Structures are given as structure tokens and as C-alpha cells.
Amino acid sequence: MSYPVFASGDVLNASDMNAVGLWLVKSQAVGSGVSSVTVTNAFSADYDAYKIIYTGGVGSTASTFALQLKTSGGSVSFTGYFYGTYGWTYAGATANANGNNATSFAFGGAGDPSWVNMNVELQSPFGSRYTVMTSQLAYASYVVTSNCVHAVSSSYADFTITPSAGTITGGTIRVYGYRN
To answer: Is-contact 143 81, C-beta < 8 A?
Structure first.
């Protein structure tokens, strides 16, 4: 199936619009020198799977970003996060880390004084089922892939990103929903 191509002034037919698979749900600017960012109303019953991208900002120091799920009332889930990461240094060495019943997903993104990067896929954050997260990031002299599960059957609408050290400034966090 080919994707639809639209030109200025085109009438948008329902069949064309229904073929679009990724929809922007939320866009949020990040402030200056913040120690965490909470994105509200990011997840709903409209989508089962989401993509989170954070670009355009900088970190005050090299750090990774934890991602923590929150209910629409603001309650934070402080338990049940399991993750495994595998990383490679630019010199070819490998490193890995894991978390067992941790308080957050530890490797959702990363940043340093030159940039930030976050590329996360989430499945079922709103669905009162276990939430699965995968992420890819570059950090200091590593590239990392992370696979995670939040083993709590609850429904989440919000999330918080927190750097492991320092603060973050600027850029935009975008949340996209995959069409069901």
C-alpha cells in the first residue's frame, strides 16, 4: 500500500486520512534548567501504542533519562519496572545494565551539553495491562538499546522524564499515537 500524498488545496477524503498511521497526540516544550518534565494527557484509549521523541534540547551534563508512568490524577508508579539494556562503546566494547522491580525505566533517553535524544516506543500505557517500552539512545561514548516492562496492570495518562544527573533545557517532546 502506498502512503497518501496531499497537495495544498486538496480535499481530504476519509479513506486517505484513515490510511495515515501515526498521529501527533501531544507536543510539549521543555523549560530552562529543569530537573524533570511531566507530559500530561499523553495516553488515552484512542491508541494502544505510542512513540515519544525528544529533540532540540541540551543537558547540563552527560546523563541518561528515566521515564516514569503516572495516572491522569498524577499518582506516580514507583514500583514494577523491569529493564535490560545492552550498549556498545564507540571502540567496540560492550556493556549492559538491568533493573529488577525498579522505580522507573532507566534508559528512556540521554543528553549532554551539546544535545538530547529520546526515541521510545510504548505499548499499552493506558490499557490497564503491563506496559512495554523499547528505546534507542546515544549516551557519552555509548549507543544503547533498552527493553523494558512495567509489570503493573494499571492505566497511565502521563509520564515524567528525569535526567540521572544535572538538568535539561529546551527542545520539544512529541508524543505520537499509532492508529489502531
So the answer is: no
- Please, what is the average pLDDT of the chain? 89
CATH class of 21-178: mainly beta
pLDDT band at 4 (very low <50, low <70, confident <90, very high): low
User: What local confidence, expressed as pLDDT, does residue 1 receive?
Assistant: 46
Strands (E), 41-124: 49-55, 58-59, 63-70, 81-89, 94-102, 105-112, 115-123
Q: What does the alpha-carbon distance between residue 54 and residue 63 come to, in Å, rounded to a whole number?
A: 14
Element (H, E) at 28: strand 22-29
Number of other CB atoms surrounding residue 25 within 10 Å: 19
Q: Return the amino acid letter for 46.
A: D
φ/ψ of 88, rounded to 5, equals -130, 135
What 3-state DSSP class applies to 72?
coil
Rounded distance, CA 144 to CA 139, Å?
Answer: 7
pTM above 0.70, yes or no: yes
Other CB atoms within a 10 A radius of the CB of residue 106 amount to 20
| DSSP annotation string for 130-175 | EEEEEEEEEETTEEEEEEEEEEEEE---EEEEEESSS-EES-EEEE
Domain spans of the chain, in order of start: 21-178
**Cα gap 29→56, rounded to integer Å:** 10
